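Customer ticket, subject: "Can you confirm the structure for GNAT family N-acetyltransferase?"

Message body: Hello, I'm evaluating your service for our small team and ran a test protein. I'd like someone to confirm that this is what the system normally returns, since I don't have a reference to compare against.
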Amino acid sequence: MIKIMQANSTHVNGIIKVCSDGYRATYKDLYTKEYIESVISDFYNVARISAEVETRNRQWGGYFVAVDNEHVIGAGGGGLTGEGIGEIFVLYLDPTRKNQGIGTKLLHAITKQQKEIYGVKEQWVSVQKGNRMGIPFYEAKGFVLQHEQKGWYNKGQGEYKTLRYARDI
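Agent reply: Thanks for trying us out. I re-ran your input and got the following:
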């Protein structure tokens, strides 16, 4: 049975694995292998994920995890970017567990936190242009494309575009 819960220190390695594997699966056709591994090294390492699991505030609500038989199979988190405005910062699944409703459950947990604790009325997400997994997921959840902008983290990979989506919650 899949359980959705706020992450703790016992979930750190599982979060790293699911986010790294999810990132590789999502971007394998968009970026070079070197770029993908560089991003994973920067964002999904023990020091960073451990700190993010322990931190919860208005800007970062902490990680939520989907756990099946004590294995992390999904992870996500968000926070506030303005008064009444929430953001989904990260949401990845084990690539072998897609289309099982796990992403929807994680999104629901993050949204519930943002609404009930922080009073969010509007929720945003950035999705890489060309992301064939993320775009349909967020559109199916009611997010509407607002605009396209230059991505903020390119690490010499050239200019890539991010699509900004929003929905009322």
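A couple of notes from the result: The chain has a mean pLDDT of 94. The chain is about 35% helix and 30% strand. Feel free to reply with more questions.
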